[in-house]
Write a structure and sequence with these properties.
- With 335 residues, the protein is an all-alpha fold.
- It contains 11 helices and 3 strands; from the N terminus they run βαααβαααβααααα.
- The chain has a 3-stranded mixed sheet.
- α1 runs antiparallel to α3, α1 runs parallel beside α10 and α6 packs antiparallel against α8.
- The termini are far apart.
Length: 335
């Protein structure tokens, strides 16, 4: 049975993150690969946020939610990747107990927020397809703000519960975490006591934050499918389904590995496999979002071309003015 935190104080003051390899050459190759992935994720999501903020045509609920999703991706990939990149280059791979606590909490909060936020985005698609004439009336800016604040509040609250119970376990022996960041199941496996009660707490959280959102997303897309099948033209059906394809792709790549990691018993914990699987919902999903939403979205591509066009026109106008000034100066000298 689990005892109150005060009766078993942790003796471990820091953890050692093993990462992916101990070979310096392999680590340098991994550093370059992960650095490119990290920069691509941050720049891609940052570009989407910038385009949505600059283009007034994208100031709609759908793109507001996409902007929030990009901010979430930039946030939670930045809680793990910079530290991993440093550890790939230096010999010391330690992380203090307090920093591990903070990393686990922030990463969990942003990831859980994204879990719920996918439901909000599915609801947005449901309203857009099933109630297109009332889209802006139903999804008012007040409701969009309330949905966003509510998802962030739930994510940070449930992450606090998960992190508190995990980090309050007694860690009195080994401190080597076979992972590249402080993920809950990896750290919990080092506790020097039975963790079945904590696993039960995580299971309850997973039901609320994974199973319930997935059920709501499924219900939304059942209604969407029924509505699309009523459209007589094939072109109209394809257009309606294409607006949901991006969301479904990202949801699949995020939920599938996260469900495997957090909804299985601790007895089936496999460190090497978990490290690889966690890359999908931590790194690749954040990289996938801007690729999927930009390549399949004409509005995003149009906003990008508009911004680039304005930039090039500004440069041309500036150079033309400079040339006119130089010409006037030469004429005055000649006179």
């Amino acid at each position: 049975m689990w005892e109150p935190p005060g009766q078993n104080q942790s003796c471990v003051s820091e953890f050692i993150l093993l990462g992916f390899s101990s070979d310096p050459t392999t680590n340098r190759i991994l550093f370059i690969a992960f650095l490119l992935l990290y920069l691509s994720s941050v720049l891609g999501n940052g570009l989407i946020v910038t385009l949505i903020c600059l283009d007034s045509h994208l100031h709609t609920p759908m793109y507001f939610f996409l902007c929030i999703l990009s901010l979430l991706d930039m946030g939670y990939v930045s809680t793990t990747m910079p530290q991993m990149l440093v550890h790939l280059l230096v010999h010391s791979q330690t992380i203090s107990f307090a920093r591990c606590w903070i990393q686990m909490y922030v990463f969990g909060a942003l990831a859980l927020t994204e879990c719920i936020f996918f439901v909000v985005m599915a609801y947005d698609r449901y309203v857009a397809i099933c109630h297109p004439l009332r889209y802006m009336v139903i999804l008012s800016w007040d409701l969009c703000t309330q949905l966003t604040v509510g998802t962030w509040t739930c994510g940070f609250f449930f992450s606090l519960i998960h992190t508190f119970f995990t980090m309050k376990l007694p860690y009195c022996g080994p401190n080597i975490v076979n992972h590249y960041f402080c993920e809950g199941p990896s750290v919990r496996s080092l506790a020097c006591m039975d963790t079945h009660s904590i696993e039960l707490v995580d299971l309850v959280i997973s039901v609320f934050m994974v199973v319930a959102p997935l059920s709501l997303i499924l219900a939304s897309y059942i209604h969407i499918t029924l509505a699309v099948l009523k459209i007589k033209s094939t072109r109209g059906r394809c257009k309606a389904f294409s607006t949901c394809a991006s969301h479904l792709t990202v949801v699949t790549f995020f939920y599938a590995p996260a469900t495997y990691i957090y909804m299985r018993p601790n007895s089936s914990y496999s460190p090497e496999q978990d490290k690889q699987i966690s890359l999908f919902y931590n790194v690749f999903t954040a990289l996938l979002n801007p690729v999927v939403y930009s390549l399949r979205n004409k509005d995003i591509k149009g906003a990008f071309l508009k911004v680039m066009g304005c930039g090039s026109m500004t440069l041309q106008t500036g150079s033309r003015r400079a040339w006119i000034r130089i010409s006037n100066i030469r004429i005055r000298k000649h006179i």
